[in-house]
Amino acid sequence: MPDRYIPGSVEGLPIQAQNRLRSMMPATGRKGLFTSDLSVNEFLLVREAGFEALGLVVGSSIYHIGWQQPALNQSVELTTLTQAMYHARDLAMTRMEEEADMLKADGIVGVRLEVGRHEWGTHLAEFLAIGTAIRHTNGEHYRSPNGRPFTSDLSGQDFWTLLRAGYRPISLVMGNCVYHVGYQGLGQWLKQIGQNCEMPTFTQALYDAREHALARMQVEASALGAEGIIGAQVTEKSHGWGSHVLEYFAIGTAIMPTRADHTIPTPQLVLPLSDRMEM
Amino acid sequence: MLPKTRREIFTSGLSIKELLQLKDAGFEPLGLTIGASVFQIGFQNLKAIEHIELPALTQAMYQARNLSLARMIARAGELGADGIVGLTLSSAIKPWGDGTGEFTAVGTAVRHSIPGSYLTPKGRPFTTALNGDDFWILISSGSRPLSYVIGNCVYQISFQPPKSPTLQAIQNVEMLTHSRAVGDGRELALARMRAEGEYYGGDGIIGASVTESSYGWNTHMVEYFASGSSISALQNPEAR
């Protein structure tokens, strides 16, 4: 898919976003009031890591999710839907990055990517990306190799730990796959009626779909020159397509070492006083 | 509840840990303070064919929240508080018809051992959504909370079906005008929250969130509500 990110472009941003971010641009000699969704701990640790919070950045895309009709007994990927769901998320992420660009950020931490439905549009889904844009106080370069601000779903605590160990986040990487799980044939159904047994067609379908999503995420990461992906997760959801159409969505943070000779500090034992409830 | 000659008890929603942390930071709890405001959301004439902010409703929702916050702060002021921690602002629709709802602001009023030293530059008690834990960490690290800040925007999303005649049920396309409308609503709420933060002074806002809710109105009206806690550097860290 072509890269939608054009440095300096604000085309995707709503007018009010441009107004808000322009008003946040630090005036000469004065640092503007920042906004962030960081907790106190995150705020302090991000600052300790040498970064300053600049502002809460969001990107959103309302997408009309259509329908693709496969043959009922077929287990196949619905490529149009896969691409649509990917495109919508990519739009939301790119807009969030454009907002970060307007604030001259190095990257965005604590990114959350959500899909929501609204009562006012039955076939519409909103894809929302939100996070806190940060910048290195000494102007060290932290952008991702492709020039975008780095993005990561790591918390402030994880971000600090990662940097301390000599790694840095490059980008959120994602992959998805919308799959139609074929209905079983009548013969198969009759054979298995009342039995406790594996359903090989279903197993195979879910396996395929999950692997596609993971593989695509990995391709994104290797294209960026990452050493690996941390915090990866695969989720499964049916976005109102009925029970036999599922989307697998894989997301994680691609990381790379800051230096070749980095050392990882030895972990220490800490016994916290907090209850398990409070942690 | 105001301690005069004899020592009176305090009420609070604090956990043991939070109580100890507050005391360590030089504060003592005075009492749970509550401010409430029951509102009725009136009617704004809807043309319902365009994406547009509904300023009358935005104002009404903002005023109702502000009233409940102001009442809570006034109550804290009566107790001689320097601030309010663990603030929560909740809304509930009441079954009395016609868009009646209640905003309730609840928090624990606290006073520093040097009374008045933690009032905001505007001379009123500070307010923050941070709990005792976060409050203690913030103070220990040389910052202080200033004010709980809010911003909102009630937005109408058009009833009209998408303009494009070619759009069919099977199509997968972005609805750019919808994206922009929803984006504008959210951005306005965020910008207003930040403007409140600027008004109270301070370095920045942490713990910000922006939520979306319909309050049982018709489904094409959505309120975006942003809130957060503004903080600033501690002027006299040795006072603690």
Structural write-up:
- The complex is a heterodimer of chains A (279) and B (240).
- Chain A is of the alpha+beta class and 279 residues long.
- Helices cover 30% and strands 30% of the residues of chain A.
- Chain A has a four-stranded mixed beta sheet. Chain A has a four-stranded antiparallel beta sheet with strand order 3-7-9-8.
- In chain A, strand 8 (228-237) and strand 9 form a beta hairpin.
- In chain A, helix 2 (40-48) runs parallel beside helix 4.
- The longest helix of chain A is centred in the first third of the chain and has 24 residues, at 79-102.
- Chain A is globular and about 75 Å long.
- The two termini of chain A are 41 Å apart.
- Chain B is an alpha+beta fold and 240 residues long.
- Chain B contains four helices and nine strands; from the N terminus they run αββαβββαββαββ.
- Chain B has helices at residues 16-24, 55-78, 132-140, 176-200, and strands at residues 27-40, 52-53, 83-93, 100-112, 126-127, 143-156, 173-174, 204-213, 221-233.
- In chain B, strands 1-4-3-5 form a four-stranded mixed beta sheet.
- In chain B, helix 1 (16-24) runs parallel beside helix 3 (132-140).
- The model of chain B has no long low-confidence stretch (mean pLDDT 85).
- Classes of the chains: A alpha+beta (279), B alpha+beta (240).
- At the A-B interface, helix 1, strand 1, helix 2, strand 2 and helix 3 of A face helix 3, strand 7, helix 4, strand 8 and strand 9 of B.
